[in-house]
Specification:
The complex is a heterotrimer of chains A (403), B (333) and C (730). Chain B is mainly β. Chain B has three helices and 27 strands. Helices cover 44% and strands 9% of the residues of chain C.
């Protein structure tokens, strides 16, 4: 796909500091009041059931269940003043991930696909450039960039002992030689046709090193336990392994954050009557903190951007069913690594977490900033298959405090 | 002959110019501002001695007298509702506010509180001596946890006369001492507060856009209970006498209901559905409730049964304020 | 009056006297002047708020409003907006004594902090108009009635390479016979894609086009919305590839050619007949042509063989089977939970209807009106696919009208004419249907209209209100009215939707695209062609085969296949054939057919999209979606995701078929056919064409000598043939 106005020297030392990115996608709209922006001293119907905990940033609190992440807060950048008009799943996902309001005329690519697309030219690694764990969600796709930039979704459950990537193992009746021959034959049939065809898949299948990246049995039990043995924890561990292999973009999905009713159960307990909380927030706390510490230990954190976000926040007032409903007017995002400033809380919401009080930041602004860190020029123009030029990022302004 | 033709032509021309074309015949809702004089009225309060009325407008406070009343003349028919727009203005009092939302005389009638502000910019309460109208204090608030200040929506003296409660569009409710210093701030509402009343020396009740009525302690600003049944903004609160000398709370909501509560136990006693959204309600001398609605009609509701006795179409436009004169006639703007 | 006096009066008004002239001029001036003498809320204020985006869905037009200030989306409810602006909360938003300090002006002009930023300058015409309006007492003014809202574009700067237009909007207001120029009060929008389209300016309304191709402009005025399509011609018509000239130009081709002429594009040439044969077989019956069919075709008269082939395919049993599958996908057939009898009855109904070549209007009507024991009356199950009246309303909109009416749930549809009353009114009609095993009408069902917060009154979308459904008979009457309206031939919305879908399934792209999003602001690329196709469909009693035949025999259908990423052509002109991938079920069957395997049941026969099949799921089978057409995704089979590629290489789908003992490779080599013969047969089977001498020679030179190795080689060769675009696309 042709580029108009290709990548040149971009001003600023913050350009391209992140070689890889791990997006922890909290699907369903995580409540900002139960995660990174809890409120103290507010009416009961705003406060919510989870309490607060102080963090390693003085004066800043996280939700009471984010104990381990709270200790790492001084490594993070928290944005508390995200704002969006879209309160529907699907639409909000697309906006949050592409930086463009969804349109029926154009399928905008997610910023992950843009980062993956950027690396296509110098990519000689058999692994896919964008990997999603485990099941696909709306908005993460490549849009008009085409199938070659679509994330590869592993499916299955990394937490399961029998986990393996579907169809990665060579068919029992075949061997690498025959695969090579098939590849070569197909190449001859395709010589007049454009398109990568099956190139990417062949390279991957025929590379033992690439396949090993997905083998979690190579990790010690201690490491696995540190992340948490269930799906999300092991997915984060897998993400770390992939980033070690220089995969530019890994998405880890944690579904279930759409807590319209009785939110204590999905958020803290995990199931009714649990003695020890195994819900979304303790699971996230364990896995995300393990991931950050692990990346730091392996000296990958400065080059790896870790993002934890969802498509919107939730209503400041708890509803009649003990839950919160969609609230895109203000929500929070957690960022870490990739050269970002440490221990920074950017922007704030008002007293009850209803509106941004200062530094309102749109998803376009956030995507613009993340793209700069990932080394993608936001002012670049790409062409759709029909020849329409589309700017990589049109409406966002860079968040100076993060660059 | 020529004059005759010219005359006919001019008459035809006049006829053409005088008619409205079909385009202009349709009339939408009437103009918002009345013809001459008062302009838009936002609050009214009858003076303690009953012969004069204070009317709050965009320009300031007007003191209006009803000559017929003060002259003691007998009116022909027992007119129940009378538009007071034509009453002569005997005095004007300047106000620092462009919107005056609430007026309240102190229990000994020596002071008057004027509450309001500039929408979107600032809010405040002015205290003046009555009847001299000398300013005793101007208490403004800006930046109460929000980037901009906004108007004070209601003000109410406590029975002892040494403090008052004021509700703010910004969401806070304040209790101030006589000198204007803040005694306590109540932050329990999650949205603009439209009404506040001093229930007794220790308790205040407030309501607002968050569709709740909150009962709270004046000593420490701690909420006692929240009355949650309204499904629309609660625009006004009143206290009334119930059976067995119990004092009950009446609320008017944009969900088109009037609700009767016992705030001491937090119980909704009953409610009535109105045909339209209520704008303002007042208690009559006989103990009934007069509710003015958005379409300019009035519901007469008997208390405490909340039964609608009558609905009277009183005015083509909405009624912003009403007071009952000493002769029982309701004056409205 | 004396006749002479009348005569005199008439003389004055006849214009022959100076006085008469003056009188006429005065009259005319009065007519035009009266519109602007008194400010009108709807005409002057609300249109400005729309132009500045104040009542957009991202701001105060959102359902939750902004800062406690609620406006109707795009000004669809002027009375409510007037109340909010002028009366609400003691008129806090307007200040009559000092209008410029009113929140309505002070906030959007930047005097007071505004989350929505500055929308206009404090000294702009907008601010002046608002100040003047408030100073005049903020009247509502005359109620606005708009008729005949028309938009057009006049070219300006015709010679420069930037094509410029002056945008104009006219409407007749309040019963006036004279259209008024309302261009300055109309909000103009173009597709938001940055600099590529050009530029659009609101005052004075002008448009500049940079990119060649088709452009859509949306115009909003007083709650109405219209669209405008403009074509900027391509500078270079493009290459012409040679092709067969035997095909006559049908009326379809004339319409398509007109579009091409306007865009200064030349169509690409016609593909060879064998390519056409494979293409039409897949599009009409979902199968690749067999060896026998290819041979037969080659023996027919050149001039008539295409027509004969289309007739043969349409008459075949395979046509009935394939179109039962298409019908099932179109109506969103799914199993009825825990009721296999109902599922079976529904499935049988669809099979029979397609197999017996029933009129699709008949079928559709039965699905809308179907009642009875759903275990016996298959059609009654369509209503059961929806769990509640709202979902049912959205399905009816999507399936039978091709509209996405769901957007009008919370506010009037921002891009089309559907109001909240329409949406909830439609749901209210369908609330009168009982969806148990016995599908029947019942009175008393209700939905709440989110706008009025009360029970919705049954309403035909865009039409009048119907009577409340107090009992079963009234409910039935309303549903019958609904059916009559959907299938009305005076305003043939069903026929248009169906004709568009049929075009899309043959050509790879609808005349309205996407095919389930027909709306005012998504106009057809060839409106007259669509109209004629709809009429043709009606005349053929809604037999899809009639339209399919017309398309199959047109030049537009037969064009050479070119990838748009190479040609950069706007596909909506149909200058070339877009490579189209096969639907997963068709592909599954095609693999087996090409290898000569007989299967117990063809995948096309599995109407139930939840039939367990990992391969079909990986290939992107339609699951939940109504009216899903997987082959309408762009780019054809060159666009396969990595997961699909892996499955194709290592999964069981292709590998097991290739290794099956019944495959033609094993059969032929077992019965002594030569290598060359197998290669030639393979070309015919996989690509529907004989291979060239050179191709056959090339392959032949690589075949190993030993038998085991030879078999493996042929399997690998078969795999590569099945994986090439020539097999996967058509």
């Amino acid at each position: 796909m042709a580029r108009v106005g290709g990548p040149g020297a971009y001003e600023g030392t913050s350009f391209g500091t992140a070689k890889s990115c791990i997006l922890l996608w909290l699907d369903g709209g995580p409540s900002h009041l139960e995660t990174f922006d809890p409120k103290i001293d507010v009416p009961r119907e705003v406060q919510g059931p989870l309490g607060t905990t102080p963090t390693s940033i003085p004066g800043v609190h996280f939700s009471g269940e984010l104990v381990r992440c709270a200790k790492l807060a001084d490594q993070m950048t928290i944005i508390r003043s995200m704002t969006s008009p879209l309160g529907e799943h699907g639409l909000a996902n697309q906006y949050a991930l592409s930086g463009y309001l969804p349109s029926p005329n154009v399928q905008y690519p997610s910023f992950g696909s843009l980062a993956s697309h950027q690396r296509a030219l110098d990519w000689n690694n058999p692994l896919p450039r964008s990997i999603g764990i485990p099941e696909p969600r709306i908005g993460h796709g490549a849009g008009f960039l085409g199938a070659s930039d679509e994330p590869f979704w592993v499916h299955g459950d990394p937490g399961s002992p029998s986990f393996q990537v579907r169809d990665l193992e060579i068919h029992p009746s075949l061997d690498p030689t025959r695969l090579e021959r098939r590849r070569e034959m197909l190449g001859r049939l395709q010589d007049s046709q454009k398109g990568p065809g099956f190139q990417g898949a062949f390279e991957w299948i025929l590379s033992p090193q690439a396949k090993r990246a997905f083998d979690l049995k190579q990790e010690s039990d201690a490491t696995k336990e540190r992340y948490g043995l269930r799906s999300f924890g092991q997915s984060c561990l897998l993400a770390r392994r992939l980033v070690e292999q220089r995969v530019p973009f890994v998405t880890v999905v944690q579904p279930g954050w759409d807590t319209h009713e009785n939110m204590v159960v999905p958020l803290r307990d995990g199931f009714a009557g649990a003695k020890v909380g195994v819900g979304l927030i303790p699971t996230f706390d364990q896995a995300a903190s393990a991931l950050i510490e692990d990346l730091h230990k392996r000296e990958l954190l400065d080059e790896t951007l870790v993002i934890a976000m969802g498509e919107f926040g939730r209503t400041p007032k708890v509803n009649t069913r003990g839950g919160r409903d969609h609230w895109p007017r203000v929500y929070s995002v957690m960022l870490c690594g990739g050269g970002l400033p440490r221990g920074v809380v950017y922007g704030s919401s008002d007293r009850i977490g209803e509106s941004p009080m200062d530094h309102p930041t749109t998803p376009s602004d956030l995507v613009h900033t993340l793209l700069v860190r990932l080394g993608v020029r936001p002012d670049q123009t790409l062409l759709t298959p029909e020849g329409r030029p589309i700017r990589v990022n049109q409406h966002g302004r860079p968040i100076d405090a993060l660059l | 002959m020529r004059d005759y033709r010219l005359g006919v032509s001019l008459a035809a021309l006049w006829w053409v110019l005088a008619i409205d074309t079909p385009f202009l015949c349709a009339q939408g809702p009437a103009r918002a501002v009345d013809s001459i004089g008062l302009g838009i009225v936002t609050a009214s309060l009858i003076e303690p001695n009953g012969s004069q009325v204070l009317v709050a407008t965009e320009g300031g406070l007007c003191v209006v007298s009803n000559r017929a009343e003060t002259n003691g003349a007998e009116t022909k028919d027992p007119v129940r509702y009378e538009s007071a727009r034509s009453f002569p203005i005997s005095r004007s009092i300047q106000s620092p506010f462009s919107q005056i939302n609430s007026l309240d005389f102190s229990p000994d009638a020596s002071r008057l509180l004027i509450a309001g502000g500039d929408p979107g910019q600032l809010g405040g309460v002015e205290c003046i001596e009555w009847p001299s109208s000398t300013r005793l204090g101007l208490f403004q608030t800006e930046d109460q946890g929000r980037a901009i200040g906004d108007v004070v929506t209601e003000v109410d003296w406590f029975p002892g006369g040494s403090q008052w409660v004021e509700s703010h569009w910004s969401g806070w409710v304040l209790v101030r001492w006589l000198d204007g210093s803040v005694r306590v701030k109540f932050g329990g509402h999650t949205g603009p507060v439209l009404s506040a009343m001093a229930w007794d020396e220790q308790t205040a009740i407030s309501s607002g856009l968050d569709q709740t009525i909150k009962v709270w302690r004046v000593a420490d600003g701690v909420q006692v209970r929240s009355l949650d049944n309204h499904t629309g903004a609660v625009v006004q609160l009143l206290g009334c006498d119930g059976p067995n000398d119990k004092r009950l709370l009446v609320s008017a909501g944009r969900d088109r209901t009037i609700r009767l509560w016992d705030p001491s136990i937090g119980r909704l006693i009953r409610f009535v559905k109105l045909p339209e959204v209520p704008v303002r309600m007042e208690l009559s001398e006989s103990g009934g409730l007069i509710v003015a609605m958005e379409n300019g009609s009035i519901c007469e509701v008997s208390m405490p049964s909340l039964r609608i006795d009558q609905t009277v179409s009183v005015s083509p436009r909405r009624i912003a304020a009403m007071v009952q004169s000493s002769r029982g006639v309701w004056w409205f703007w | 009056m004396h006749p002479r006096h009348l005569e005199r009066i008439g003389w004055y008004f006849s214009g022959r006297s100076l006085l008469g002239v003056v009188i006429w001029l005065f009259l005319l001036e009065r007519i035009f002047a009266q519109e602007i003498s008194e400010p009108s809320f709807e005409l002057d204020v609300l249109t400005l708020l729309t132009k500045h985006g104040c009542n957009s869905g991202a701001c105060h037009g959102a359902v939750a409003g902004r800062g406690e200030f609620y406006l109707s989306l795009w000004g669809s409810n002027p009375k409510a907006d007037y109340d909010q602006i002028v009366h609400a909360f003691k008129s806090r938003r307007v200040r009559f004594a000092s209008p410029e300090e009113s929140l309505l002006i002070a906030k959007p002009s930047g005097r007071i902090a505004h989350e929505g930023q500055e929308r206009f300058e404090p000294d702009s015409p907008t601010a002046e108009t608002l100040i003047r309006w408030i100073a005049a007492g903020a009247p509502f003014g005359p109620s606005l009635r708009v008729e005949d809202f028309q938009v057009s574009a006049e070219p300006i700067e015709p010679s420069s390479d930037r094509l410029g237009y002056r945008l104009r909007a006219f409407a007749r207001l309040n019963g006036s016979k004279i259209p008024l120029d309302v261009s300055d009060r109309t909000t103009w929008e173009a597709e938001p894609d940055g600099d590529s389209m050009g530029w659009i300016q609101q005052s004075p309304p002008t448009l500049g086009l940079l990119r060649p191709g088709r452009h859509w402009i949306t115009a909003r005025f007083a709650g109405q919305v219209r669209s405008l399509v403009l074509i900027k011609p391509y500078p270079d018509p493009g290459p012409v590839l040679a092709g067969s000239a035997l095909d006559p130009m049908t009326w379809i081709d004339q319409e398509v050619q007109e579009g091409l002429d306007r865009a200064n594009l030349k169509p690409l040439g016609i593909a060879d007949d064998l390519t056409w044969l494979r293409r039409v077989s897949l599009d009409l019956v979902g199968r690749i042509p067999s060896l026998g069919e290819i041979a037969e075709f080659q023996g027919l008269d050149l001039r008539t063989r295409k027509t004969q082939t289309v007739d043969r395919l349409i008459r075949s049993e395979a046509f009935g089977t394939y179109w039962a599958y298409k019908l099932a996908r179109w109506v969103g057939f799914r199993p009825i939970a825990s009721e296999p009898e109902a599922t079976f009855a529904f499935e049988q109904y669809l099979r029979r209807s397609a197999g017996e070549r029933r009129s699709w209007k008949q079928i559709a009507q039965e699905l809308v009106l179907g009642t009875g024991d759903s275990h016996r009356e298959g059609a009654a199950n369509f209503a059961r696919l929806a769990s509640d009246p709202r979902v049912h309303a959205e399905r009816i909109g999507s399936v039978f009208l091709g509209i996405r009416i769901g957007c009008a749930n919370c506010h009037n549809h921002p891009l089309d004419r559907w109001t909240q009353d329409d949406y909830h009114g439609l749901a209210a009609i369908l609330a009168g249907i009982d969806r148990g095993r016995e599908v029947r009408y019942s009175g008393g069902g209700q939905v709440t209209n989110l706008r009025t917060r009360e029970a919705a009154i049954p309403k035909l979308p865009g039409q009048e209100f119907l009577s409340v459904q107090s009992d079963a008979k009234a409910a039935q009457a309303n549903v019958e009215r609904l059916s009559a309206w959907i299938f009305d031939e005076q305003d043939p919305r069903f026929a248009t939707m169906l004709a568009n879908r049929l075009w899309g399934t043959m050509m790879g792209r609808g005349l309205v695209d996407p095919v389930d999003d027909l709306r005012e602001t998504n106009p057809a690329s060839h409106p007259r062609l669509l109209e004629r196709l709809a009429k043709s469909l009606i005349e053929a009693d809604y037999q899809p085969s009639s339209i399919l035949k017309l398309i199959a025999l047109s030049q537009a259908y037969a064009r050479v296949e070119v990838d748009t990423s190479v040609s950069r052509l706007d596909p909506s002109f149909f200058a070339a054939r877009e490579p189209k991938a096969m639907a997963p079920e068709v592909l599954y069957d095609a693999i087996h057919d090409a290898l000569g395997l007989s299967v117990e049941s063809r995948a096309i026969g599995w109407l139930d999209p939840t039939t367990p099949s990992e391969s079909l799921d990986v290939l992107g089978r339609c699951g939940r979606m109504v009216g899903c057409s997987p082959e309408l995704s762009r780019g054809g089979a060159t666009q396969r995701s990595l997961g699909q590629q892996l499955h194709w290489i290592n999964g069981p789908l292709v590998n097991r078929a290739i290794q099956s003992p019944g495959s033609f490779i094993r059969q032929e080599s077992g019965s002594g056919a030569s290598d060359a013969e197998i290669l030639a047969m393979g070309y015919l089977r996989f690509f529907g064409q004989p291979g060239t001498q050179e191709q056959l020679r090339d392959w032949g030179s690589q075949i190993p000598q030993q038998t085991e190795e030879k078999l493996a080689w042929f399997e690998d060769w078969a795999w590569s043939m099945l994986s090439s675009p020539r097999f996967l696309n058509h």
